[in-house]
Amino acid sequence: MSGPGAFERATSVAPRSPGWYDAYLAEGWDIVGNTNGGYLLSIVANAMVHATGRPDPISVTAHYLAPAGAGEASVEVSLVREGRRFSSARGALSSEGTQRLQVLGTFGDLDRAPAAPELVLGTPPELPEPEKCLRIEPGEGFPPPFTRQVEMRLHPDDARFLEGARSGTPTIRGWLRLPDGEPVGTLALLTLLDSFPPTVFNVDLPIAWTPTLELTAHVRARPVPGWLAGEFRTRFVSGGFLEVDGELWDPSGRLVAQSRQLALVPRGDG
Amino acid sequence: MSGPGAFERATSVAPRSPGWYDAYLAEGWDIVGNTNGGYLLSIVANAMVHATGRPDPISVTAHYLAPAGAGEASVEVSLVREGRRFSSARGALSSEGTQRLQVLGTFGDLDRAPAAPELVLGTPPELPEPEKCLRIEPGEGFPPPFTRQVEMRLHPDDARFLEGARSGTPTIRGWLRLPDGEPVGTLALLTLLDSFPPTVFNVDLPIAWTPTLELTAHVRARPVPGWLAGEFRTRFVSGGFLEVDGELWDPSGRLVAQSRQLALVPRGDG
Prior knowledge:
- 2 copies of one chain form a homodimer.
- Chain A is mainly β and 270 residues long.
- Helices cover 10% and strands 40% of the residues of chain A.
- In chain A, strands 1, 2, 5, 6, 7, 8, 10, 11, 12, 13, 14, 15, 16 and 17 form a 14-stranded antiparallel sheet that branches. Chain A has a two-stranded antiparallel ribbon with strand order 3-4.
- In chain A, a hairpin with a 5-residue loop joins strand 16 (241-249) and strand 17 (255-264).
- The longest helix of chain A has 16 residues, at 37-52.
- Chain A is globular.
- The termini of chain A are far apart.
- Chains A and B meet through strand 5, strand 7, strand 8, strand 9 and strand 13 of A and strand 5, strand 7, strand 8, strand 9 and strand 13 of B.
- Strand 15 of chain A pairs antiparallel with strand 9 of chain B, so a sheet runs across the interface.
């Protein structure tokens, strides 16, 4: 690969004045017209990386205020704390005069983490080799154009919804990477954490669309190159909300990121 | 009980000017001098409830910038979106001229949730009756004064650290409620989600103190009166960080809140 990859180009930000960045929400990163929320978060986080001078999002939370189409956007970033190891900042992305998301995040440098005790009780999901998993590719309407931007291979047990069936368990496991060998840095992890189809596609609920209210991502490590293994689970569809808990593991078997999002369950009658 | 309870008094805020509130970080809500993070979040969320006119925090995230002692504080709230069902706002609490935490939250009215499909795959933790669990009461230094503000009864299997032993599993289960029969509203849930001792007290790691970088709480329902059952688990101590995932269940068997926090693992040598 030569030059910046598609993800790097689509998430680039240009400083305009102190605290302000120009961005462009690229065409083809949408699900039925709504730009993917993880991708929007990657753009804001990129501006926050620039403003804080820290390369890695450690913990970032986005609240989604309004769906966004493709087009010009601006990102405002305000530093709220500069510490020895971490800096915290607020960010907001607007397009066509409307705020689309607000972000609060703490940034650091994962290469500079001091040695600390470790205890890992989880394991990567058990997945067939990528070539034995199901490729999601954009179709007419479904799967949406966004699926061209992130290469995904779903565990066959979790991909039955592609044929109109359901596994019965609100879980999606599979492989993810950026196309054309583009390296996955910690900003791209934020997009990959929001790339798989909804977990509830696999259960018999009258739910087609689950708009995300809020997404929080924790990044633990920079991934080594290769397919990332992802596992996304929902345990509670209740009170009109559902959560999706995600984990991404790199080819070395290391947990690189966790996420939880809160999505809205549209009412049962439609 | 007559008049406001201790929690309600300790988390009260007084509007000072548009977007600004006076608050007081009460004495005795600290762990070795540092005011409890869940309690700080309840105060900021209370100001956000006032500013948004919505009674319930649906999803709130706090980033902790500096420890806070007891004393006067001010809270600034900026509305970022007013929608039909939800409003989103930013909040920040300062004391002695220093910002202590930043908050981003979406608020609504849980009584007005439209009927929607439900699917609940988790269950409340299995706990002995409260009188057969271990009471945590403040001692000299440990347990800290904060344990006077929230009544807690720990599962005996998870309370061995009180006698210097360890269960081997980074889990804490038990009962929680406010003292003196004070009702637990959705603001109090934010404090209860950060009340139990650290999960890592139960594993053999050289970790004594785990400062919280970030705490996110999702509130699903208003609890009915009585003891709440809580379960807090850590699965990944890695990269210098650990997460704590929490659930609170009310006496009707309903999940009322979920939380995840990211805490810092102090380096192994100290």
